[in-house]
Amino acid sequence: MPKNIKEQPGRQWPLGGCCRRLKMGIYAPCKTQQEHEMTSNNQNTVKVQLYGQKEILYVPWNENLTAETVCKKAAAKFTIQCLSSTLFSICYKDSRMWLSPKECPENGSEVVFRFRFHVVTDAHSLNSYEEQVLNYLYEQFHDDFIHGRIEDLSIEDRLGLIVISILQYNKCNEHVNLTSDTHFRSFVPKQWFRGLNMIDKHRLKLKVRGNLRRFTEDSGDGSTCYRLMFLASLIDNKPMLIVEQYKAMRGDTACTVRISANKGIEIEQNKASVTWRLMDLTDINIYRHRGGDQLDWTVQLNRRNGFPEFLQLKTKQEAEGLVSLLDGYYRLLIDYYHFLCKELAPPSLDLITKNRCHGPIPRTEAFEKLRKAGMEDGTYLIRQNPEKYDSYCLSVVYGQEFKNYKIKIEEGEHVSLNDQNSFDSLRGLMEFYRHPENCWCLEGPLKKCITSTASFGGTTGQSGQL
Predict the structure, then answer these.
(1) CB 75 within 8 A of CB 48
(2) How many angstroms separate the CA atoms of 304 and 393, rounded?
(3) pLDDT at 293
């Protein structure tokens, strides 16, 4: 046999150089077409991480892209309804800084789609969320639990959460093999598990196995039951999980600002705290302020009764994150059509307030508003479609009956009714169909408009499950 395999007669070795490069660690295989597409996509895309999804969502980037648009695409990917998408936001993966709805994500950045607005504060009432929201909230908190983002849990709490998450997995998949570290560790906090020795790992598996036997597989309401158990156990033990907090300066003294749906705004300073209700806010200003040797961003909270409150934060992104949090809670809990800070108002809210449209209310609520308005022919309202993103509906009364028409949004924010004439705005569409000669696709002209500002009067304008 030849000493050098390349010297064998009758053989050609075109990849001989590749063998040497492979040994040296510098050989790279040819990229597949999919890998080429992924590489090119990364140059002008925003990568969105979705909990519970193996695939990354790639959103094409352009200068007009907003965080709100990214949220809508992520929610649609997880089949979350339009009405519930306002409970979510995105943050940068590395810094965990929140993006305001109007902010344009950086080109090529990686963001995480997260549940942010915890309007349900009772852990045992979480089933008021729609099923897909509840599923995503479970995936989010489970990921936080596994990657150590939930701190100061006792061993008993960890054990209980591990057991519940395994039961949840077993409902939808093959049973977990507790003899395999690779499979078992996907349910255990990673850093904590790595710190255990072999004996402690064996004891942990025995405890988990013993607790699993105590649960009956047929108890509860399917897989959702275990998700609720996991979330309720976690929130009961760690109520701060549904509270967002910021470090700020109040005057010359540091303070901690905590925001939640049930307590509103809580400012703790020098072991004393003051609490405001969200409904006491009228508007918020944000501006740059020079403090000492550095430039800080000032958030001015204006109240109905009392002097304004001034909070200084180090970066613009922190300040905008705080303001967008307050604005989001205010719209969800107090008035859906009122934005506290015009500069950071969601683009979709700008559009519906400018055109005096309604939010994503269901058809039954739209009909009820028309009924209260008198049921005259031509009485109408325009509302966001609660079932389809970036879509509107025209609800109108003809002959004491309710009619619905879908309004299509085309590229460049042009709108059309039944694929007829295209208009630059919803107001232009409404004005066009007020004239009888233009109403060939309707049963009559539009006459009396029921606007959002006239019908909601300080309520959220939304109904049904969040």
Answers:
(1) no
(2) 36
(3) 55
Q: Is 311 exposed, middle or buried (0-12, 13-18, 19+ CB in 10 A)?
A: buried
Which residue has tokens 């560790």? 185
Kind plus residue range of the DSSP H or E element containing 49 = strand 45-49
Q: Which residue blocks in 147-277 are alpha helix, DSSP H?
A: 155-172, 181-184, 190-194, 198-214, 222-237
- Burial (CB count within 10 angstroms: exposed 0-12, middle 13-18, buried 19+), residue 395: buried
Pairing type for strands 401-409 and 253-260 reads: unpaired
Classify strands 415-417 and 401-409 as parallel, antiparallel or unpaired. Answer: antiparallel
The sheet carrying 253-260 orders its strands as 272-276, 264-269, 253-260, 244-250, 309-313, 294-303, 281-291
Strand order in the sheet with 401-409: 380-384, 392-398, 401-409, 415-417, 422-423
Q: Of 301, 290, 306, nearest to 246 (Cα)? A: 301
Residue 294: predicted pLDDT: 63
Model pTM? Answer: 0.82
Exposure class string for 234-263: b at 16+ Cβ within 10 A, else e:
bbebbeebbbbebebbbeeeebebbbbbee
Helices 222-237/155-172 angle, 10° precision:
160
CA distance 12 to 59: 47
Structure tokens at 107: 């080109």
Please tell me the predicted confidence (pLDDT) of residue 295.
Answer: 65
- Give the helix/strand (H/E) hosting 30: none
Query: What whole-number distance in Å separates Cα of residue 347 and Cα of residue 413?
Result: 12
Maximum Cα–Cα distance across the chain: 100
Dihedral of CA atoms 126, 131, 137, 139 in degrees, nearest 10, equals 130
- The b-or-e profile of 103-121 (16+ CB within 10 A means b, else e) is bbbeeebebbbbbbbbbbe
Q: Are 80 and 90 in contact (CB under 8 A)?
A: no
Q: How far apart are CA 38 and CA 47, in angstroms?
A: 11
User: Which segments of the chain have a pLDDT < 70?
Assistant: 1-42, 179, 216-224, 290-295, 411-413, 453-466
Residue with tokens 């849990």: 153
Rounded CA gap, 114 and 137, in Å? 8
